[in-house]
Design brief:
The chain is of the alpha+beta class. The protein contains 13 helices and 9 strands. The chain has helices at 11-18, 22-29, 63-75, 95-99, 122-132, 136-145, 152-155, 183-190, 192-204, 222-241, 275-291, 304-318, 320-330; strands at residues 43-49, 55-61, 107-112, 208-212, 215-220, 252-255, 261-262, 265-266, 272-273. The radius of gyration is 22 Å and the shape is globular.
């Protein structure tokens, strides 16, 4: 209990803390989901298309379960600190902090963790909570409240591509749902061992390491560059041992003679937004000024003004000069 966590003495105390009766708590946890056809009855689930191709499964908890998860997030998971070199899904962490250690390096090695949330199972969440000091029965109940087993019908007839078949077993075991408020923080905490081992690997060869959600960066000088391919294999082995999987199709080895980029930023000579991204956003803003914002909302994005302001604010965070130019155009738009 060194993390100032609540000292739940019983299931009744846990139920009182999250604001639901004990019976409802077990109902929401759905502990016998493997016996039911509708395993995700407390979730609204759908597939969305990914920019990189393929589809991503979104599993969003219904209001009552979502409120319980928010309570667990604020009272439990947000009070356990993630690794200091993990910058995603944490207060005070930013994608800029994630990228800064890798600016002006001879070589950058970019790794991507495949299905980050799906690899965090109920058993792993149970182990996290048990290690944090909670009783065994409470750890198991809380782990059930924040994980879900995807319904079989959603993996077959529910997919937008009729020819699609799920062969990966990660969908068929209880996992962190993408769409739950607790999933990002829990995935971060369950990757603590991965961060410890990969940061140690980086230090052993004089390199830098950082992680932002499922994006991993290692960078260093020419000596690191000569070992980078071997280290990528070692990193993949470590990830498997820690319960994750590196997507080697997205592995990038970027030298200083080419554009080094991560999380939408160029790293070569200081953090900056990629030129193509900047030009595209600038063109959209100009067209909003000339033809009205409705003409540019081609994908019917809700709250389009907030969406565009968020994109401008992102550029301002990375590059003040370019951000200032976009802000001047944004202020001219008649919303």
């Amino acid at each position: 209990m060194r993390f100032d966590l609540p000292k739940f003495r019983s299931v009744t105390a846990l139920a009182r803390a999250v604001g639901v009766p004990v019976g409802d708590l077990y109902w929401l946890a759905n502990p016998r989901s493997h016996l039911r056809r509708n395993d995700s009855r407390h979730y609204r689930s759908w597939w969305i298309r990914k920019r990189s191709g393929g589809h991503r499964l979104i599993e969003s908890p219904l209001p009552r379960l979502k409120e319980v998860q928010n309570q667990l997030l604020s009272q439990v998971f947000d009070r356990i600190p993630p690794h200091c070199l993990s910058f995603g899904f944490r207060k005070g962490g930013s994608v800029v902090d994630f990228a800064k250690p890798h600016v002006r390096q001879d070589v950058c090695l970019k790794l991507d963790l495949k299905d980050f949330f799906l690899h965090v199972t109920t058993g792993r969440v149970f182990g996290l909570l048990k290690t944090a000091g909670f009783r065994r029965d409470l750890s198991h109940l809380m782990a059930l409240l924040v994980t879900v087993r995807t319904g079989e019908e959603l993996l077959t007839v529910g997919h937008p591509d009729p020819s699609f078949t799920i062969r990966d077993p990660v969908y068929r075991r209880r996992h962190l749902p993408q769409g739950a408020p607790t999933s990002p923080a829990i995935a971060n905490l369950c990757a603590f061992g991965l961060d410890v081992r990969l940061s140690g690997l980086a230090r052993s060869v004089g390199a830098h390491y950082s992680r932002y959600a499922d994006d991993i960066l290692l960078s260093g000088d020419s000596d690191f560059g000569r070992q980078a391919k071997r280290l990528s294999v070692v990193a993949g082995t470590i990830a498997l041992e820690e319960g994750f999987e590196v997507n080697f199709r997205k592995l990038r080895l970027m030298r200083s003679s080419q554009q080094q980029f991560a999380a939408g930023m160029v790293l070569n000579d200081g953090l900056s937004v990629r030129r193509n991204d900047f030009d595209a956003l600038k063109a959209i803003l100009h067209n909003c000024v000339r033809h009205g914002p409705a003409s540019q909302n081609r994908f019917s994005v809700p709250r389009f003004r907030e969406h565009m302001e968020g994109r401008v604010r992102w550029v301002e965070t990375v590059s003040k000069n370019r951000g200032r130019k976009l802000r001047e155009i944004f202020e001219k738009i008649q919303w």
